[in-house]
Design goal:
- It is a single chain.
- By secondary structure, this protein is of the alpha/beta class.
- Helix content is 26%, strand content 27%.
- Strands 3, 5, 6, 9, 10, 17 and 18 form a seven-stranded mixed sheet that branches.
- The longest helix is centred in the C-terminal third of the chain and has 13 residues, at 312-324.
């Protein structure tokens, strides 16, 4: 029996989102029905609304969520109704070439629910953002997307593990391999960038340099573990980072913005043989050009970080435990709590850089 729910839908490219009634089917084999409790507003949701991810409209937005399992389909043995979960947009298939080579964090065939959610009346199928669609009272996902965590973590904080915090934290710890004594620079101090700062600090970096255009964001970055800050509005950030690192540049530079100009800054901000990690998501028409000789002579590694190269079943419970033990302050990421009806104003605040995370409480 389908379940009726209110949800945030992007009907067409660039148009304001609407809160509409949808139908969520009962879970089929390998699926779970989740009652959503909270969902963060991520920049990727705005990309979906604006058609920068694809054109499979209408989209059911939202993907950074925590909630409670309401029902499970056949074949689901590790989840039960009442389990408290954080939703993940990577659910390794176990069969693709990445999974078979013991690299499930690169899974090329991540699982999603097979049964579509639809608009009420007419049956128009919805494309769930990142296979989740959690700006809704209920959503349907593959069982592997629902990761059971400690229920004492409140959903407004726990849900942030599902995307932005995991992406930034993992960019430093997993993709960048930050270790004890490293120097690290992070460009862009929004939610993802500050999570990278927190991850680098926890991994033992000797110096963590936050780079941004906004003094308020730089102040926040210090609270997440930045040892130094650089406002790049009136300062050459490359020279500033070099000055803070003995003239050499940072061992690891994380671009949490994803623009050609920040990528170029990150490239030259590295020490020789240093690592550049891009975790900020660029828009489809962006291009970068660099001298081939510089690519050769500077050496090191240029990496893209997909979801912080995480394995949700392994990493989500660990980050929740760090939060509950006071070692990762997820509460500090929450700028405001809102309702499903407040998504458009939240997008505006995000674009203006006024919030780290708006969190929908359902």
């Amino acid at each position: 029996m389908p379940h009726e729910a209110r949800a945030v839908v992007a009907l067409k490219k660039g148009a304001p989102v609407e809160v509409l009634p949808i139908l969520v089917p009962d879970p089929g084999p390998g699926e779970v029905l989740v009652t959503v409790q909270a969902c963060g507003v991520c920049h990727t949701d705005l990309h979906y609304r604006d058609g920068a991810v694809g054109d499979a409209f209408p989209y059911l937005l939202g993907h950074e969520a925590a909630g409670v399992v309401e029902a499970v389909g056949t074949g689901v043995t590790d989840l039960a109704p009442g389990d408290y979960v954080v939703l993940a947009w990577r659910a390794p298939c176990g069969q693709c070439r990445a999974c078979r080579r013991a690299r499930p964090w690169y899974c090329f065939a991540s699982r999603n629910a097979a049964r579509p959610m639809t608009l009420l009346g007419g049956g128009t199928e919805l494309t769930a953002a990142l296979g989740i669609g959690a700006f809704a009272e209920k959503t349907l996902v593959a069982a592997g997307q629902a990761v059971k965590v400690d229920p004492s973590a409140r959903p407004e904080a726990a849900g942030l593990i599902g995307c932005g915090v995991m992406a930034g934290y993992g960019a430093a710890v997993h993709t960048g391999g930050v270790g004890s004594g490293d120097t690290v620079a992070v460009i862009g101090c929004g939610g993802v960038g500050n999570a990278a700062i927190a991850g680098a600090s926890r991994a033992g970096a000797r110096r963590v340099i936050a780079v941004d255009l906004d003094d308020g964001k730089l102040d926040a970055a210090e609270r997440f573990g930045a040892t130094d800050t650089v406002n790049s509005r009136g300062t050459d950030p490359i020279e500033a980072v070099r000055a803070l690192t003995g003239g050499h540049g940072a061992d690891v530079v994380i671009d949490a913005v994803g623009r050609p100009e920040t990528y170029r800054q990150a490239f030259y901000m590295r020490d020789l043989a240093g690592t550049l990690v891009q975790v900020g998501v660029p828009e489809p028409d962006m291009r970068i050009e660099l001298p081939l000789l510089d690519l050769f002579s500077r050496g090191g590694a240029l990496k893209s970080s997909w979801y912080g190269d995480c394995l949700p079943s392994r990493d989500f419970p660990v980050l929740i435990d760090l939060f509950l033990s006071g070692k990762l302050d997820l509460e500090r990421f929450i700028s405001e709590t809102i309702t499903l009806d407040d998504i458009e104003p939240a997008f505006t605040k995000m674009q203006r850089g006024e919030v780290l995370r708006s969190v929908v409480v359902v």
